[in-house]
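Hi V.,

Quick status before I head out on leave. The structure for the redesign project is tokenized and pasted below; the design run finished overnight.
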């Protein structure tokens, strides 16, 4: 008996919080219909309904705010990593000078 092979799922896409918020706002304002949004952006009905539920609950705004905080932290981490690299190079240079003088 031959085994059935399930087709591989498509790759997952991530949508920005701003995109979700704008799309839900447009749908709720009647600027665009659900089916039109689903077709235009390749979204499933379940995914769109989940976003609209979050939007209605006000949770979508919280998600965007959390993403903003994460972006700020990532920028701070990058700046600190650059500073650590700079200080490491300075320490290495001072060690070489000290070894040369000794």
């Amino acid at each position: 008996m031959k085994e059935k092979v399930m087709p591989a799922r498509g790759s997952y896409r991530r949508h920005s919080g701003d995109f979700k918020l704008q799309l839900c706002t447009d749908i709720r304002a009647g600027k665009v219909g659900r089916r039109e949004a689903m077709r235009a952006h390749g979204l499933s009905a379940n995914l769109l309904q989940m976003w609209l539920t979050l939007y209605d609950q006000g949770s979508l705004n919280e998600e965007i705010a959390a993403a903003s905080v994460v972006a700020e932290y990532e920028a701070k981490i990058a700046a600190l990593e650059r500073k650590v690299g700079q200080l490491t190079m300075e320490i290495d240079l001072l060690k070489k000078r000290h070894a040369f003088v000794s």
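Above is the designed sequence. The longest helix spans residues 59-101.

G. will cover questions while I'm gone.

Best,
W.
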